[in-house]
Predict the 3D structure of the following.
Amino acid sequence: MKEGFTRRDFFKIGALIGAGYALPRVIGNEIRRPAKEGLPTLHDETFSTSLCRQCPALCLQKTRLVAGKPVGIEGEPQSPRAGALCPKGLAALQELYHPDRLTHPLKRKGERGSGSWEKISWKESADIVRSRISSIRRTPERLGIFSASFGLQGKVLERFARAFGTPNFWRPRWDPAEPPLDAFRGKTGTPESISYDFLSADIVVGFGWDWLQQMDPHVDTQRIYADMRRNASGRRTRFFQLESQLSISAAKADEWFPLIPGREGIAALCVANTLVSEGFHDKGLSERSVEGYDSFRKTLKEYPPERAEKDCGLSAEDIRRVARAMGAAKRPLAITWRSDLFSQEAVNSLNLLLGSFDLIHETKNFNEDLGLKNMPRRTDKKPIADIEKWPGAVLGESRPPIDVLLNDGFNPVFTGPDPSVWKKALANIPFIVGFSSFMDETSFLSDLILPQPVSMEAWQGGVSRLLDGTTFFHCAPPALAPLYDVKDAADFVIELARAQGGELAAAFPWNSFPGFLQGIAKDVGAIKSLKKGGWSKISAPARAPLRPTLASFKPAEISKRGEKENSASSPRLCVEFPLCFSRGKGAHLPYLQSLAGPQLGEQWETWAAIHPQTASRLGIKDRQMVWIESSAGRIFVRARIYEKMAREVVAVPFGLGHSQMGRWAAGIGANPAEIVLVGKNSGKARWQGESVNVHG
Amino acid sequence: MSQIMETSRAADLSGNKLEEAVLRPLEKKPTRGQDALLLALALIFLIGLGAWARQLAWGLSATGLGVPVFWGVYIVNFIFFIGISHAGTLLSAILRIVKAQWRAPFTRLAEMITITSIPFAATCVIVDMGRPERFLNVLLYPHFTSPILWDVCCITTYIIMSSLYFYTALIPDLALCRDRLGSGVSPWRKDFYRISSLEWTGTETQKRVHHLIMTVLSIVLLALVISVHTNVGFVFGMTIKPGWHTAVIGPYFVIGAALQGLGVLGLIAIFVRWFFRLHTWLTETHLDSLRQFTLALTCFWGYFTGVEILTTFYGHAPAEMQVLWSKISGPFWWCFWGMILFCFVIPFVLLAFKPLRLSSVLALSGFSINLGMWLERYSIVVPSGANPFVSFVGRYWPSLTEWLITAGWVAGFLMLLLLFMRIFPILTVWEIEESAEHS
Amino acid sequence: MSMDNQSQEKSSILNKGCINRKGFLKAALLAPVLFVRKLRAATDSALGPEKGARRWGMVIDLDRCTACQSCVVACSVENNQMMGNPHEAAMGRVIRWIRVQSVEKKNAEGYRQSLAPMPCMQCDDPPCIKVCPTSATFLDPEGIVGQVYPRCIGCRYCVNSCPYTSKFFNWDTPSWPKPMEEGQNPDVSVRYKGIVEKCLFCHQRLQRAKEKAAFEKRELAEGDYIPACASSCPTRAIVFGDINDPRSEVSKLSQSPRAYRLLEELGTEPKVSYLREE
């Protein structure tokens, strides 16, 4: 009984196996291979060249259109940047199709800042602006213009300011993106820009500058890094980074030295001291009579490498290591950003000591006269203040010095420094016109908002400078008709001028911005490329080395600053600048929001990176929400424990924390500009090194 | 031997009494308390269903899952219910094969638990699916290398076979119901008993065939019991994920399921014994056998756990260790140590010592084991998800929807079990009588 | 018995021992072997790479890469990826087919953080394919691991078994507020709630390139087909091509002494290689 049963069971199993054996074949390929889904056949696929205006690089884009709608974007492969685009440029379609774009002119209805607007026509808005302008025609200096957008539109606004006769034309700058220009200021003023010859250097030492994310133009910066490390000649440029956290640049460096934020100047002088004491410096330097060299040498005595331990958080050994690496190199290069004057000069002194000044060249963004031909000279009157001191100048007087303010793309109520002061100052201006594609924080405080086309929707042109100083004229026609009732600020201003008549009209012999563009294209010999979009070379790479000087080096100032800030046991703030939010723009685009912190996997929020020891001292846990407080204000951010940073530092990214800018930016994250202090004398933001309180 | 003697004596003395005790609850109108309990369970189950409906509309974003924890409480519940379902088959199949006489008063209850828990296990997987309406794709486009497909096959077979098993064992008792249940039973139930008892009259031929079928089914089910839970283990073991990819996971799951099955059986048996006043047939000696069996499995489980941890620790592969540390001292310490406490320490103490041989203590240890086994599954599924090879370490905490569905499914299972108890005899009368005859 | 007839035709082993137990045992042992071999043959021919075909691969030079994440945005635009929001980000539900992952290494030389762009590794022996119960994910003849959205049941088994965490699940219906959907790439289907998606090496571009080449009556040439991440990379750190073609740049680079593959020890045979930083 039992055995027979067992055998039968075996048969069953055999049958099962047989079925299993046959089944895979029966099912066969046809069922299992997924059905092919064909692509739609596209007869109407076209490509057009457009120009990205999100930063001064003005890269050319290749836009893919299907049925007249842009559906894809890439770098223009034939352009000087060979098809490369930074993430912001690649996200341009989201700017075009953003659901919260401004779609028509808006006039303020209620109180300023109440957020109630009335839709008006372009004609009505032109009438309003014209009447305001007419009322100050006899006191032209009461007109102020902020021109923060990139491209030749700015030149139209400048031309308007000149023709109108106002000196109050400001072009805001963005220091974290710039090299230490102030260190090169001479009798002729600060150079417009400089270019570093990274490829000829054999070691690059970065002082406190996350240059891979911050340095303009972004695309070229990435490319130059790659060529520095891997190039056809096989030579590899070494790269050291002194920075308060293992930023992206520091992670890419061969060696990283954790530095207390804001102390790059002292660190550089300690390195300089070591170079001199170990005999690495350029011996012929004193003979070449560098102005101020002797007093500089005297100052250096105060900076032995041991000083770095107390002031910079670096060991004397670290300093010696950096110094020896630089000293042993043939062509070392020290770079930093346009922070405070002392740091800029101190870091640059290393290039001077080591004779590397031929690696730094002066460049011009573009010819000053471009777009300003046949113009009356600038008025002799002085502007009310530099842009850094603008709020102070406005608030300092009982009657505001400006009656009408035209603002093309400047958003100090977000980027600061000290947004609250800007807010107060702007409140004093009787009439503000904002040109913007989005409702940003500053436009929100305007009386009239004139919606701007995104770059794809309008004629564009401008001068693009590569990192080596070569300049190109880039231009592009609109890729599509504007989606909304928008008008380019330049067109608006040209119409305004022509309607005013007289001198103003005479300064604008063109009907519109494309006409103006055509004139310039003719000047630079790019008329052929204008129609389809393209480029033409304006100038060769910069080769003029800058004259080294230490004339303005102020040792007194150094020692004062050096000794000042040792007291606080509270952590120091270090604001970092992710590429995707460079210049404080980008948080309104969801594809950029998702990029911010690849090292901590952070996205869509503002975080504060803290060293584990500091965090445990402050009783802060990973991912806990914390307040960061300075005397300027406080922000609420997510604490993230990050081992790779200097102790007693909180690093906060800049770019989020909008109160406006549409659904993907408003109310998300926090804005460190609100807690950054402003230098009393310079009016500049002190992004690095301020003491802050951190608590849960 | 003594317990068999005792059983036989009890059965001998009161064969009619046994039938009466078993049939009385089927005849009597349920008390208001019973109805209230059933209603409460039904309500919780409905809330669970509602939570699922909401999840169907919102997608799995209603859960606390994300990258890299892709599987959470639903999968934990799935293994948990499969574990519960092992009560029946394991006990009645193994014990029937080895002819352990003490099984007799437990078999019916055990099989009931199996039948009523499997649907909830199977639906857990469907609840976890992103597109549950495409469930049949598994059969339309089967891919034989997938352990999930093996699981589908195993569990389907398991459902069918254990239903057959339950039913076959039930036939003589259904006939008893048909013959003995009187006025208190509604006509449709009478019809049901009449049709389903397949004209069982208890002749020698019928008994022989019945015995043969029961033996065959026991053997098949024993293989299935092992294969089902091994396969559930394979779903994890066949991936190369740290913490999952281990050969021991198949047998470990089988042992875990068996332990949990016994735990739940002990818990429910003691409840039933108290509720239906079955002390005469479900004696202390029966419970003692169950206690010993559970204790043995607890030790087995402890052994497997130890083996797994030791192997991982000795190999010291970084990715594996990351998972292990996250359990031992990391964010998942609570479920790991909870599991050790509830699955091993508490049941061991409660079951091993003589002074603690009380039925309530057995029930307590059964509860502890079930709690511990849920934590065990959690500490298998979630920490491995949270510590992948490459990705950011993820966090996961079940959302309200997940808790509601969990509660709903547990309530649903208990509800179904109670309903079964109202329709089917709670003890296997023929088996108890048979075991009495044997001795 | 019926077994006789069957076995006479099929197998001598069965023929000899159909009566005794030994024969049965042999047959029982042999059958699974045959079954597995047949199964492998069936799956290989249906799903495996064809010999002599192109095998698309990628080399990412970490020494050139600066983690600028242009590739991430380019991929998002090309492949109609979801927008994301703070809640989804906090839950880890923002899908990006390529992401920049920090991989930390501690060795004798000290600490090194590599920031590696990670697309799908397009394994030649993909762990995700084996476990899919519905064949919704498959290896196409040119080596790209595909995903059939209409067939996927959303069990997330493949997602779990991918050692690179390169497969993604749609926890929710992605929102495309007007007029955002105007900018969707018409070549790529927009995914929906409850299914798994993954990097397909911009398969749609391969289709287009093939169509174009066929129209121009020529073979597909190197550079005709480049995924969005590679074509947009500012530093040219991502090189793409046919690794079966010994002349292609990608196959030359993948022979570099600096080349390695992520989690190579798992035997997944990824077709994405990295070049180590020096």
User: Anything to note?
Assistant: The domain at 51-275 of chain C is CATH 3.30.70.20 (Alpha-Beta Plaits).
